[in-house]
Write a structure and sequence with these properties.
Elements lengths: L6 E6 L3 H4 L5 H18 L3 E5 L9 H16 L8 H11 L5 E3 L11 H7 L4 E7 L1 H14 L3 E10 L3 H11 L4 E3 L1 H8 L2
Parallel strand pairs: 1-2, 1-4, 2-3, 4-5, 5-6
Helix pairs in contact: 2-4, 2-8, 6-7
Amino acid sequence: MIDINDSIIIMLNYDDDFFKNTFSKMEFLMGMDYVNNLIKKFDLPVLFTKRELNYKIKNNDIKEARDKKENKRIENKPPETSYDKKFLNQFRDKIEIQNQINVKKEDIFYDTDIENYIKKYHKNTVLLGGFFTDTDIFISSIEASLREFNTIVISDITSTYSERLYFQSLEMISQFVDIIDTRDLMLIYDV
């Protein structure tokens, strides 16, 4: 069970460039409606993280290998639709970005003060959402768990390039931390 009063929400890469590269835009937006109600009802702190979509890698061999893998992931991205512009505008209006911390890599804890930020709020439950499920959410959820935070990924406020990557990633994440969707949160907290 989630102790909502012991919770902080961390939204990874809440940014246009990341959102544009996801397959489940409408589901994400609907999930954010509920999360916004949850934030207001329980006055939950929210932390935003942001990294560069294509950050610099000093080792050329690693960079070349990562670029190949990233290009393979992008191949699975769905084509743009006539709804995408509307979804992007809705995304921009969903939540006001405050308390944003720039991160350097997919692991939000790598060379940052995020762990201390969470502790400053005296929170032990980390609710994760944002982009991308298969990289940033996957790595950061495990890192949060290793730091002994009660870590929960809210599945419908995270997304990635393709449905296949998304569900494979959630399956892997569920081996380490809990996963819940906003429909279940609505039943538990009546929002």
